[in-house]
Amino acid sequence: MAMISLGGATEASIWSIYYPIETVNSNWNSIPYGKPLLNQTFHVFNQLMEPCPVWVPGQLYIGGIGLAQGYWRDEEKTESSFIIHPHTQERLYKTGDLGRYLPDGNLEFLGREDFQVKIHGYRIELGEIEAALQQHRMIKDVVVNVVENQHLAAYIVPLQSNEEDYTPDDTTAVAPITSNMGNVPKQKNSINKPPCQALADAKEKAKIL
């Protein structure tokens, strides 16, 4: 039985790239992203929209017949995400993902360039959830992270004056401000005034897909 890894984006008909998994090298950080499917294209570009050499990280773009026409009734988002390459004139979707070419021609996926994550196939903006939780009157700061790629966890710094009155479950009422119930953290942890670097480290770890 053959095992195939598939990847891509909803904006490009979901599946755009594949990799047949035969043997797994113990030195790999992850299974290679692979090569484009038929009639699809994948590109790794730098900030000047130039192809990146092997091993050099860049932004991932998808092209080909699988591209969507755009976002329903959202011209601004469509114009920012779907572009025309300035030199090749190919229409492309900017995924927001980072990757690089491997010497064998396969692509390696390196994560996001923002704080967007994917859980059970749904993309979620961690920053939106943090902003919603920070509206709570008892919260000083918050970091939302992904636990075991399965669910969201919120790490909450209470306001000092309200620490005795605050419990993590108090945020349940404000969490549904986010776009759907799948964005509500299942796990909430109260932490005592961590240094700024601790919050930054947590945000960096949040770039899990």
From TrEMBL:
UniProt entry tagged with the keyword GTP-binding: no
Pfam family, one: AMP-binding
This protein's GO CC annotations: cytoplasm
GO biological process, one term: secondary metabolite biosynthetic process
Keyword presence, Translocase: no
InterPro entries cross-referenced by the UniProt entry: AMP-bd_C_sf (IPR045851), AMP-dep_synth/lig_dom (IPR000873), ANL_N_sf (IPR042099)
UniProt keywords, alphabetically: Ligase
Location of the AMP-dependent synthetase/ligase domain: 3-72
GO MF, one example: phosphopantetheine binding
Identification of the protein by name: Non-ribosomal peptide synthetase
